[in-house]
Amino acid sequence: MHPTPPPLAEKDQLHPRNPHRAPYDFPLLRQRSPELAAFVRPNPHGSLSIDFANPAAVKALNRALLREFYGIEHWDIPKGYLCPPIPGRADYVHYLADLLAESNGGLRPRGEDISVLDVGVGANCIYPIIGRREYGWHFVGSDIDGVAVRAAQQIEAANPTLAGAIECRLQPARTRIFDGIFQAGEVFDLTMCNPPFHASAAEAAAGTKRKTTSLGTARGPRPTLNFGGQNAELWTEGGEAAFIRRMVQESGRRPRACYWFTSLVSKKETLPGVYRALKTAGATDVRTIDMAQGQKKSRLVAWTYLTPAQQETWRKTRWTDPS
């Protein structure tokens, strides 16, 4: 049985291939996306920025970043849905590419033959957008929210660069993750997930208040959360720990259907329970990859059930030299 992965050294920077490592170039971004110009102002330090507590400003910044870095001309989300910080989302994708490379002699598998399942694709469709642009991967995005699924489908349909690259599926059972999404005989090279963080609506509301207060923008009893988020995006019964345990259990029922199952883990305290669940499920290899964006620390956990011989067969049949 695999050992428990050791603690990792703390990081404070984004992935080396992440194009968002440098400060935002607001003069360039507002030139490329005139909508953003209305929100750009000098900050107290004398440099240009936006009010990150303003949802409209954050959405305009995301549109500008998606246009400049990912070739997305048409992007929108319904009011109140999660408007994610793109730099951190890009990190997850780049670390997954490294994970595949470590399993493939240092070569990062690219192209449409690489299939990725994004659990909880959301209305924003961010992970498929980034993964398609950076590595040419094909995505299936699942979600329990029909509005989110339709919004993600609209983003795919509105942008020629995404044509045929993303298939969105509604998860019919709110308590299921892979069940009902994996189709007969279907395999994925990767699954990815940013689980709901909080364990209840009250906990999510308290987190919203703390976040807003830290930005210095609390406005009475109902502060605005600049990144938004619906209930299914922010909380689930039992929080991320229970969600990831269910994910592990369901992954164990289809051990040959994916090379690397993965999930973000926000809380360090969640890790021991995840490792115990993976040991019980029979994972043959478990990796923990540290991630960071400034003061925000996170990590992803990846696991596989494939034996070394099965991994070798997978590489030979599905992954080719990108050169």
From TrEMBL:
It holds the Pfam family Methyltransf_10. InterPro entries: METTL16/RlmF, rRNA_lsu_MeTfrase_F, SAM-dependent_MTases_sf. It catalyses: adenosine(1618) in 23S rRNA + S-adenosyl-L-methionine = N(6)-methyladenosine(1618) in 23S rRNA + S-adenosyl-L-homocysteine + H(+). Belongs to the methyltransferase superfamily. METTL16/RlmF family. It is found in: Cytoplasm. This is Ribosomal RNA large subunit methyltransferase F. It is an enzyme of class 2 (transferase). Gene3D superfamilies: Vaccinia Virus protein VP39 (3.40.50.150). Keywords: Cytoplasm, Methyltransferase, rRNA processing, S-adenosyl-L-methionine, Transferase. It comes from Hymenobacter negativus. The gene is rlmF. Residues 1-23, 204-223 are annotated as: Disordered. HAMAP family: 23SrRNA_methyltr_F (MF_01848).
